[in-house]
Amino acid sequence: MTWTITPEHPGTPTAAALWRAYYTEVSDRYYLLHENRRTDAAELEREVARHTGGELTPPTGLLLVARYEGQPAGTAGLRLRPDGSAELTRVYLHQDMRGKGGAARLVEAAESAARTLGATRVILETRKDLTEALTLYARLGYEEIEPYSDDIYADHTLGKTL
């Protein structure tokens, strides 16, 4: 059972399918928790079209795709910020791939890529209902930091010095 993690352009069909799966899951979780409904199909299409991932391309960004035994399993994106940090975004593993060690490998690969891009710190925002993510980040040494955006969905802002 092997994991591979490689850079991929956000516009590839694989990356686009993983982004759609990520957005569907986090959006459905939010709406089920707050409004007792799933994501509206039109809203999903608007968000997928609006967030193309173009900022996750070199030289100031990167998208990593994780594969488990050759099958696309997840993503992690990085975008460099003017303060020397790299923002970690779109961290996602398909539900059936969780518990196999891929999430930690994916985040560690993103941290290594951030160092290569010249970042001195990794920062991220996440929601309180994404409990698996919060547990993972705590285990990997991420700590609460001051918010860096006004994102209404960001319940936690975390950082880690590289």
Automatic annotation (TrEMBL):
It comes from the Bacteria. SUPFAM superfamilies: Acyl-CoA N-acyltransferases (Nat) (SSF55729). InterPro entries: Acyl_CoA_acyltransferase, Bact_Acetyltransf, GNAT_dom. It holds the Pfam family Acetyltransf_1. The keyword Transferase applies. The keyword Acyltransferase applies. Keywords: Acyltransferase, Transferase. Residues 17-162 form the N-acetyltransferase domain. It comes from Streptomyces pseudovenezuelae. This is GNAT family N-acetyltransferase. Transmembrane segments: none annotated.
